[in-house]
Amino acid sequence: MSEQVTIRDAVSAMQTAAAGTRTYTVVADVNIRSGPGTSYAKIGTLSAGSRVTLQCQTPGQTITGPTGTTRIWDRIGSGRYVSDAYVRTGSDGYVAPRC
Question: How much is the pTM?
Answer without folding.
Answer: 0.79
